[in-house]
Amino acid sequence: MKEHARQLRKNQTEAEKLLWSYLRNRQIEDCKFRRQWPIGTYIVDFACLPRQLVIELDGGQHAETITYDETRTRFLEAEGYKVIRFWNNDMLSEPEAVLQRIYEQVRMEVAPSPQPSPRGERE
């Protein structure tokens, strides 16, 4: 599995290369992302382990593997991961929109939930 992940890192798509240029070195909310990372029997495109966030970039072949992708997503969610998917074309043509969605997801994961005052008063 590790060797397969290494091979995938060496043979990234253009969309993966572009997204990695934004995710690497903790550029988004100081989050450490890993690329082509094994989780269970799957290798995910990008993962932020502390935030339990998986980002997948899908090419045209994924239109034919919907059932497989759904099974994979259910497994990852059962392991506690939030999975967000983008088409390669979206990353290549609208990288700002993709990055904004990732940023929003990361911010949601760390935003404290509002807590009521112990006396029932609004703060």
Q: State the major sheet.
A: 4 strands, mixed
State the helix count. Answer: 5
- On the 0 to 100 scale, the average pLDDT is 85
Order of strands, widest sheet:
1-2-3-4
User: How far is it from the N-terminal to the C-terminal residue, by CA?
Assistant: 51 Å
- How much of the sequence lies in strands comes to 15-25%
| Architecture (CATH level 2) name | 3-Layer(aba) Sandwich
Shape descriptor = globular
Unreliable runs, pLDDT <50, ≥5 residues? none
Strand-and-helix sequence, N→C?
HHEEEHEHH
| CATH-assigned fold name | Endonuclease, Chain A
CATH H-tier superfamily: VSR Endonuclease
Q: Report the CATH C-level class.
A: Alpha Beta
Radius of gyration: 17 Å
- The total tally of domains equals 1
By oligomeric state, this entry counts as single chain
Give the fraction of residues assigned to helices. 40-55%
Structural class: alpha+beta
Q: Give the strand tally.
A: 4
How would you describe the overall organization of this protein?
The chain is an alpha+beta fold. It has one domain (about 1-110): Endonuclease, Chain A (3-Layer(aba) Sandwich), CATH 3.40.960. About 45% of the residues lie in helices and about 20% in strands. The chain has helices at about 1-10, 15-25, 65-80, 90-95, 95-110; strands at about 35-40, 40-50, 55-60, 80-85. Strands 1-2-3-4 form a four-stranded mixed sheet, with helices on both faces. A hairpin with a 2-residue loop joins strand 1 (about 35-40) and strand 2 (about 40-50). The longest helix has 16 residues, at about 95-110. The radius of gyration is 17 Å and the shape is globular. It starts with a helix and ends in a 13-residue tail after the last helix. The model has no long low-confidence stretch (mean pLDDT about 85).
